[in-house]
Amino acid sequence: MSHSLSLDLTREDAQAIDDCWNRIGIHGDKSCPLLAEHIHCRNCSVYSAAATRLLDRYSQLQEDREQSVALLPDSDVVTRSLLILRLGEEWLGLATRCLLEVAPLQAIHSLPHQRSRALLGVANVRGALVACLSLSELLGLDGTPAGAAPSTRVMPRMLIIGAEGGPVVVPVDEVDGIHAIDERILAGASLSGEQANAKYTRGVLQWQGRSLRLLDEEQLLLAVTRSLT
């Protein structure tokens, strides 16, 4: 997906919500009379109400958001495009068709009344509040941190994915990149033993010396929607 699509989606959210924090608040001219009391906009009930309204939007918006992907004729399609990412010690593969953008990690602001364990709070993406979810919680991972990073250049990232009601932010520990993987290799992925109970997973395969867990993007996006309603 192009970056312009994620910009369009976040602009829709910004237009639907009065983002006073960008005009007279901490990110604006700081003229808001409530700043003296609350110190920061995230401590203000107006900010919390805006975040709650955003989450309500995920519940109410039912319009179809079709993802179109340009493909070669079926006889020539031999690869599938996957984003390879890391959570703790586990490497995961996510279909790029549900990905809007990979962005630097932003501050995540918790909400006073969380709706689910997976909901971390909201993040400010170009002035718009976007719900932030824990992929580890959705997948049932234990959250054990990985060992020493292989390179000092490795930095956590945020994935902005297209859910039913709009973009959702998912923090990850590392993004390896987008790879075109032979569909014959993907077809050989399977689940066995303890892996058989892995949530939202199509299978596990060995790829470039890694054990790679292939996520079922359709089931995962349904879980994302349930976490926001």
From TrEMBL:
Main location: cytoplasm
Record's GO cellular component terms: cytosol
UniProt-listed SUPFAM superfamilies: CheW-like
Keyword tags: Cytoplasm
Domain CheW-like, first and last residues per copy: 79-226
One Pfam family, short name: CheW
Record carries keyword Cytoplasm: yes
One example of a Gene Ontology biological process annotation: chemotaxis
Compartment(s) where it occurs, according to its Swiss-Prot or TrEMBL record: Cytoplasm
Keyword tRNA processing recorded: no
Top-rank taxon, per record: Bacteria
PANTHER family the UniProt entry points to: CHEMOTAXIS PROTEIN CHEW, CHEMOTAXIS SENSOR HISTIDINE KINASE-RELATED
Descriptive protein name: Chemotaxis protein CheW
